[in-house]
Amino acid sequence: xxxxxxxxxxxxxxxxxxxxxxxxxxxxxxxxxxxxxxxxxxxxxxxxxxxxxxxxxxxxxxxxxxxxxxxxxxxxxxx
Length: 79
Known about the structure:
Blueprint: H1 6-16, H2 31-35, H3 39-51, H4 58-61, H5 67-77
């Protein structure tokens, strides 16, 4: 299970994805532009969320542009 507090959530998720950042992570940090997300990283992130009991509908996946978006849907859809 991922933590619910944003900074802990972001740190834990990025660690699970083996991503390093050059600066602080905020809710507005962009997945592709700032974190280097590609389709494989997105699939790995979705798998991490699923392991925590959160499955995002396909329609929402295309709307994820920031780590804050991911956190929002995680909180909204977690069991």
